């Protein structure tokens, strides 16, 4: 399946927006882990902005930047939101509350705990009527989400916003499901060539290949292994290079093969 990448965003530890992340991915700047300083979720009404948590704000930040980069109206976009962990901090808070004698759970915490909360905030913030899907596919969430987004883009003949995001999980769950650093990225995919296109992505599933590519930089390679959403860093690095190439992403089963051809 061939789709055109029209816009892109990356926010994560040591990666502050696409313009900065591109320089790091190109090797022009050294990657240094650092706290993520997100812009405010300005698309949300004041009440929803207060209720939203860090995970939703991360997803909205990358989604908004990718749409701005692509020069498209967010309200017109179908959406595919992919996260392995969901909001682990909220789940930990709810489980801690349930373990107390009172066992009272905040309604705000409860509605933030559902896996599609970031997608819901996105549709509210932009008054969307187009469908938005939320996926959770363990360590393969990035690859499966990209496959879903590319397939929907081709089949529906419509642009699709793909967003992948994950945060570390605190508490007892975080000791079992270990994720480090914060990471989110977004891609605006278009079914037809566009003047603002960055590159063409030819996406296919290879069930027989289990190996996958990782970034050349040791620090970014560690980030790719430490955060499920960052599993797509090898693809993002290939896109930032502005050169033709192919990348294999971990999927289940096999791998997702992505051929990158600059426009």
Model description:
With 263 residues, this protein is α+β, with helices and mostly antiparallel strands. The chain has a single domain, classed as Thiolase/Chalcone synthase (Peroxisomal Thiolase, Chain A, domain 1, 3-Layer(aba) Sandwich), CATH 3.40.47. It is 38% helix and 22% strand. Strands 1, 2, 3, 4, 5, 6, 7, 8 and 9 form a nine-stranded mixed β-sheet that branches. The mean pLDDT is 92.
Radius of gyration: 18 Å
Mean pLDDT value: 92
Order of helices and strands: EEHHHEHHHEHEHEEHHEE
The named CATH superfamily: Thiolase/Chalcone synthase
Q: Indicate how many domains the architecture comprises.
A: 1
CATH topology-level fold name: Peroxisomal Thiolase, Chain A, domain 1
State the shape. Answer: globular
CATH class: Alpha Beta
Helix content: 25-40%
Structural class by sheet pairing and helices? alpha+beta
Query: Count of helical segments?
Result: 10
**Cα end-to-end separation:** 16 Å
Q: Unreliable segments (pLDDT under 50, ≥5 consecutive)? A: none
GO molecular function, one term: acyltransferase activity
Organism: Acetobacter okinawensis
Protein name: Beta-ketoacyl synthase-like N-terminal domain-containing protein
Pfam family, one: Ketoacyl-synt_2
